[in-house]
Design a protein that fits this description.
The chain is an alpha+beta fold and 270 residues long. It has helices at residues 33-40, 42-48, 73-79, 113-130, 138-141, 147-160, 180-194, 205-218, 226-241; strands at residues 12-13, 52-60, 63-71, 90-93, 98-102, 107-111, 162-163, 175-176, 195-204, 246-251, 254-265. Strand 5 (98-102) and strand 6 form a beta hairpin. It is rod-shaped, with a radius of gyration of 28 Å.
């Protein structure tokens, strides 16, 4: 900032959501940093307010110099969440303290705080490059792109973009490439499509577990411990068929076999 600049409250401007937010198209040339981000992130502007406080000072009768002097961390934390119209989406999955982005295949994949900081800095430099000559670019290029500010934006985004465990639950439409909920989703398919209630039959726990492990292998999912299989599948069978896991079944003369009475395993689904 120039040493001779003195701040006057009348010269400090913020961008109001109802100011010109629908006036500009992204193809038009923005005249201020606030306009640049308002064109691209109108939803975030409505929710979090002006990207910057800007200092507007007349340097001659025809020219106003514009300098962004303070940054809205909440707004830029929201910006990291992506642009809905482009299909971009980023979340912070609190249950695992990890970042996820939605890829072009609609599947969420992990990313890192460092990559998000790089994205933020890239947006700031792109804005600076698009600004006309009367916009003072020092803060856009240097101060607001510093490691300190970048880390602060990403840290703030943890709370603003936070998603709870239901985001990747077994009943959620959101999918990721790895996660225990994938096993539960497959377990629901296993119970729905492979099991039938049929009098006179016995489904041994070991046979059910072996069939499920084969499904996991087909889907290229990580193996599941037998104890974890039980914790997922036993409640599903009980809820769907009202049949409990028993420890006293007799199969081929063997006593104390674990399994389900009057349940049958069908052929595997596609």
């Amino acid at each position: 900032m120039d040493a001779q600049i003195t701040l006057n409250s009348a010269d400090l401007k913020i961008y109001s959501p109802n100011q010109n937010i629908f006036k500009f198209a992204v193809s038009e040339n923005p005249t201020t940093p606030n306009e640049w981000f308002a064109q691209r992130y109108p939803d975030q502007i409505k929710k979090f307010g002006s990207p910057f406080i800007e200092l507007h000072q007349a340097i001659d009768p025809l020219t106003v110099q514009i300098l962004p002097v303070s940054i809205n961390l909440d707004l830029f934390a929201g910006v990291l969440g992506g642009r809905r119209e482009l299909g971009h989406h980023v979340i912070y999955y609190q249950a695992e303290m990890d970042w996820y982005f939605r890829d072009s295949d609609e599947i969420y994949k992990t990313t890192s705080a460092e990559k998000l900081a790089n994205l933020y800095r890239a947006l700031m430099i792109q804005c600076a490059q698009d600004m006309p000559g009367n916009v003072h670019k020092l803060n856009l290029f240097h101060e607001f792109r510093s490691d300190k500010t970048s880390r602060a934006v990403v840290q703030r985004a943890k709370s603003i973009l936070q998603a709870d465990q239901s985001f990747f639950s077994a009943t959620s439409p959101n999918q990721r490439i790895r996660g225990i909920e994938l096993h539960e989703k497959l377990a629901r398919k296993f119970v729905d499509e492979l099991l039938n209630c049929e009098p006179g039959h016995i489904l041994m726990l070991q046979d059910a577990y072996t069939a499920f492990c084969n499904l996991l292998k087909q889907k290229e999912l990580e193996p599941l411990k037998r104890s974890d299989f039980k914790s997922i599948v036993v409640p599903l069978i009980r809820d769907q068929f009202s049949v409990a896991l028993r420890n006293d079944l007799v199969v081929d003369g063997r006593q104390g076999v674990r399994g389900w009475k009057n349940m049958r395993l069908q052929t595997q689904p596609n």
